[in-house]
Design goal:
The protein is elongated. It is mainly alpha-helical. The protein has a two-stranded antiparallel ribbon with strand order 1-2. The protein has 10 helices and 2 strands, in the order H-H-H-H-E-E-H-H-H-H-H-H. The longest helix has 26 residues. The chain folds into 2 domains: 52 residues, Arc Repressor Mutant, subunit A; 137 residues, Tetracycline Repressor, domain 2.
Length: 202
């Protein structure tokens, strides 16, 4: 009996979340009411409140679920050892991240659009930065070991990643996760000018 109840809860929450995403795409986050969500999910308001406190609670939990998957993937220790970056492993990790975003394409496309939740991209960037900070601490890296301050490095990489993801989802996922990973790794490791074919002179 407990198992059936759990499955019913999972199913109801899935309907609520899918309804919510569809409504954001249709009306924009700010315009949505609890009545809208309930009607679209074919439930009553009382059922909604059994699972979520309000619209903000729903969007927070939805974002946290998706970001938890993303957080579990970002592991700099997998490709950085003794200040040496293993490019093949770095690119593999980035490809896994893009694949995860591809699997949640509709969510990211809507959230990163004008109709999405204000500050979503900033929250995503903060999550990435926190992961890198944690991993740098795990590696026991000291600030004096870097020619560029770690905080600046973390901010640059996270900004490059967010900008690339935004461009990708706003352009209908034009390229494969593997191609996007290759492009981003080149931009980060070689630099935007050299990766585009420009020669650098003193």
């Amino acid at each position: 009996m407990l198992k059936k109840t759990d499955l019913r809860v999972i199913r109801t929450r899935k309907m609520i979340k899918e309804s919510f995403i569809d409504l954001i795409q249709e009306k924009g986050y700010e315009s949505i009411t609890i009545r809208d969500i309930a009607d679209n999910a074919l439930i009553n308001r009382a059922t909604f409140y059994l699972h979520y406190e309000d619209k903000q609670d729903l969007v927070d939990k939805l974002i946290d679920e998706v970001f938890e998957e993303l957080t579990n993937i970002i592991k700099p220790c997998m490709y950085i050892q003794k200040k040496k970056v293993k490019i093949s492993q770095f690119q593999s990790m980035i490809e896994i991240i893009f694949t995860n975003i591809f699997q949640h394409a509709k969510f990211y496309q809507i959230m990163l659009s004008e109709k999405g939740v204000h500050g979503f991209n900033r929250k995503m960037q903060v999550i990435i930065q926190q992961n890198f900070r944690k991993e740098f601490l795990t590696m026991n890296s000291q600030e004096q070991e870097f020619s560029t301050p770690p905080e600046l490095l973390i901010h640059f990489i996270s900004s490059a990643f967010i900008g690339t993801v935004e461009w990708w989802v706003n352009n209908e996922l034009l390229y494969s996760p593997k191609h996007m990973a290759s492009q981003l790794v080149n931009l980060i490791t070689i630099g935007p000018l050299q990766s585009s074919g420009f020669e650098i002179e003193d």
